[in-house]
Amino acid sequence: MRIFTKAIRALHTSQSRVRLSSTSNSARQCCHRSPSFSSVSDRNAIVDLRSDTVTLPSSHMLQAVTQAPLGDDVMKEDPTILEFEHSVADLFGKEKALFLPTASMANLVALLSHCNTRASEIIIGTESHINLWEGGNPANLGGIHTRQTPEDNDARLSEQGIMDCFRNGVDDHWPHTALLCLENTHNMCGGVALPKSYLDQIGRLAHERMNIPVHVDGSRIFNAAVAQEITVKDLCQHVDSVTICLSKGLGAPVGSVLVGETEFIRLARRARKRCGGGMRQAGVLAAMGMYAVQHNVDRMVEDHVNAKKLGKALKENGFYLLRDGKIDTNIVYFGLPEACTITREDFLLRLREEYGVKLTGGYSSGGKLFRAVTHMHIDNSKIDRAIEGMIALGNS
């Protein structure tokens, strides 16, 4: 542990030197009238709106690592992991929790645990992350068929759409519907926060009419709870399992947690091992996740305010906004004004080189949409710079 502590201190020193060097370079660049951001790598200079996964751990978070007691988690002997899992399970009002390296693995493990017989299928949203962005894991690695139904403008699956997909396996031609999956917040629908009333409604539908569990890909579930001023326990009361990502919005560098009932987590632990997710002294990761959950949830309000400010400014200047500019949390999808003459590629390139703003593009609507995601490294001044650059280029 002493060696690890020395390594962390060395990292602090190295980061400090880099920050000092970058600050000096930035000061010299400011002397020029037209600064270029093309070679700037300092996160304090760049406005990185590509994702809320780009955040770096704070000094306090790194310090938590040096103080974390460790053990072998595969043998269930890492005290930091055990404490963290217990606290997250309690936070969500579920019996047990399981720490995993990624949210994609957590979702896969959840599916494997709920669909533990062959010829199983899940009902899932067409635009959901599990369906689009996780490598086809249900079928590719789980042998699980996906039955897709479209989301509406508010990221909801209709009761009729769900029931139309439901198959109870009585016909030999059919797979057996074993699980219903939701996503909250919903990325591709624009960071929509599904309300408790809807989750309760769908939970009752699944449990009472279909006799199947509900899994929520809640990678950004804390954003959903903060946006609605509700606890995650109340929000997830009538769902059976939830994936929580620690490196989206919360600011941890890695890690996810899966919560559910005792038997489900027992199966999930076995599935995690089959997926290669059993880690040894994983408390070094859980310590940062624990710090994130304890300290970085309430501040998400700032991210939501900044996202709404960005969306409002773009809409007022002729940009297309998904959901007509209704923004629930920290994700903004937008398109260039109709009169704009520059290409998507030029917009991204010039925004980065001339204003130091990073975005991703190529989403939906024929690849014409851009995505901006606010997070703890984006303050009001950075949002102002992003707005300035986007409007200037969008009107060119």
TrEMBL record:
Molecular function per GO: L-allo-threonine aldolase activity
InterPro entries: ArAA_b-elim_lyase/Thr_aldolase (IPR001597), Low_specificity_L-TA-like (IPR023603)
GO CC terms of this entry: cytosol
Keyword Protein transport: no
Swiss-Prot/TrEMBL GO biological process terms: glycine biosynthetic process; L-threonine catabolic process
Cofactors that this protein relies on: pyridoxal 5'-phosphate
Family the UniProt entry places it in: Belongs to the threonine aldolase family.
Protein name: Threonine aldolase
Organism: Nitzschia inconspicua
Lineage, opening ranks: Eukaryota, Sar, Stramenopiles, Ochrophyta, Bacillariophyta
